[in-house]
């Protein structure tokens, strides 16, 4: 976090003015008492934007969000864990709409301003009676942001949440965020979910543009296993209660908001990669000197996605041949006589050939719980950073030993 | 194997007339006495063709093969295991050429007709003195085909080899083949290698075309971990000693040769997938009803490449939500209201919705050492088959616990 611009504060999504949350255990998950239903509501309608999975088998709630966000406005979201409402056909779509109606009825909102998300098992209809009872049971409070971050978890070992405070037009503006998951993070389940709130006033078109750009550089650059989910959703709600002049590309402090948003998403993305199934290490891959940004993205992602290199990271083995192979297979433009590879601060390759580096230093650079690989292709100005994790027995156990 | 057209015979690459092979342990691999050098020679110059890795970090021997095969002729190949001769720069390229010269000198061949392959550790120069002594030590015999199939192995648990016999122009024609590896199959190593021999007379252009087509449907449709190697090589040598009229697209028995070649490559591809690192099950994914063949290929490969589904296969868990997710993420055109999924003979989904199938039957269809998934997209005529394997602790162990 760039401490100069932002201050970290508590309660994540309910830190901005006018946002309240509530959670309950309504029995969707088989484990009794585990929270599986959460609602986030703004006191006033918000400018809203979203990004979603590009899967061709996307879940019903994703379709509902995409439909409703065409208007660029929203005021609430309801989230359940334990059931993905995916591969559920017309009934599933009807149930997703019904979830939003329940929230609208309970809290006196326009149903067209209510969004929904689901994460969990694919191919089962939602238990609507339990959800209906759950919604009636939920009480909203601005002190429940942290509870919200916990209720949306599936195999996450810890919640991922943050809130920042900064100034726009001499008003104190707050931005809060929570995420769960990382790629396909749960057996037969799915889904990265992310909810962002701000009390800044923001023009919708610019908000959508900035969200998409920030997601491209952060959430779209993390991977655990390369599996894309049917339910991935990232939503941002801006209710304007801070009273600033609406942010847009011409606002003199647009860059402050942009940097806060990017810092927040980068933090949350890294936390998701670090908490990947079975992960013991966070891997960061920096690529520079690529012919284009697209090439840098290909190269960086290819290395985080290589199971062989992920295994080397698990074993703290500076086995750079696997980086070379992943780089070669990535599809990025590459000259075998110009690329450099570093692990941590130790340069292993220069101009495509191994240096006589210190093996112990290279090993030492792999031993911590964060491993950083840097590639310089020396072909242009393209840069990118991707995050991933190691591949361990823990991943196999979580995903093999599952029983319905 | 289609028994009507072909008969299986012994000695793989030396089964066709006029091919001899020899192997030795020259000390490239650290384990003393393990064979690591192999040579295959035809008595007469051959029409030859090849397909290679598309990696941007391809190894020196791949460059040598690609250069020499421009002439469409070859007579021999030398293969070492234990060192990939990759990321070795100008010196590596010089060493690769030198390997071919050693074979030419030893066996009285034109060096421009000698090809070479390497598989093993990336980033080390070849021990040329050991290779020189090894070449001098090798004796060629038509009884050594099976030895050849063993000498090129790295982490393979068993050799993959086959030979077929069939008739062209009333001549008995033989076709032999060996492979090693499967994707990136060895720690810090690489490489699928395949060598095919035939005594059929074949026109070069048609041979190259047929090889490329057969590889596209077989070797390019297998995966273990999605990692492409720097050294992948598939070579075919046709020496014409069977005395048939040269095969080309207009030859009345072109289809016989095509089917023999395809059957052989499919057999070898399946054997490689079955022997993937840590694999306990062969996975076959059949896709039909796709809008195009390209779409079918995307869909089939996406399922074999999903680590989550590979873990489900390991656990014999008919967890079809992971198939749905992989299918959705594949990029193939898909209608959520039309696709069917089968595991073995058990239909799990019809028109995108789960059937009330028998859970025990679905589980039973996963229990054997071969699991077959069939997807019907009901959108067109495109079909494809991909092969893969499960993902187990064995894979993690082989690739994490490695030490240089």
TrEMBL record, chains A, B:
CDD domains according to UniProt: OAT
Keyword Oxidoreductase: no
Enzyme Commission (EC) number: 2.3.1.35, 2.3.1.1
Binding-site list for substrate: 154, 180, 191, 277, 399
Summary of the function given for this chain in its UniProt record: Catalyzes two activities which are involved in the cyclic version of arginine biosynthesis: the synthesis of N-acetylglutamate from glutamate and acetyl-CoA as the acetyl donor, and of ornithine by transacetylation between N(2)-acetylornithine and glutamate.
Name under which the protein is recorded: Arginine biosynthesis bifunctional protein ArgJ
GO biological process entries: L-arginine biosynthetic process; ornithine biosynthetic process
Keyword Phosphoprotein applies: no
Site, as annotated: Cleavage: 190-191
GO cellular component annotations of the record: cytoplasm
Database matches in PANTHER family: ARGININE BIOSYNTHESIS BIFUNCTIONAL PROTEIN ARGJ, ARGININE BIOSYNTHESIS BIFUNCTIONAL PROTEIN ARGJ, MITOCHONDRIAL
GO molecular function: L-glutamate N-acetyltransferase activity; L-glutamate N-acetyltransferase activity, acting on acetyl-L-ornithine as donor
Positions of the catalytic residues: 191 (nucleophile)
Organism, as annotated: Thermosporothrix hazakensis
Quaternary structure note: Heterotetramer of two alpha and two beta chains.
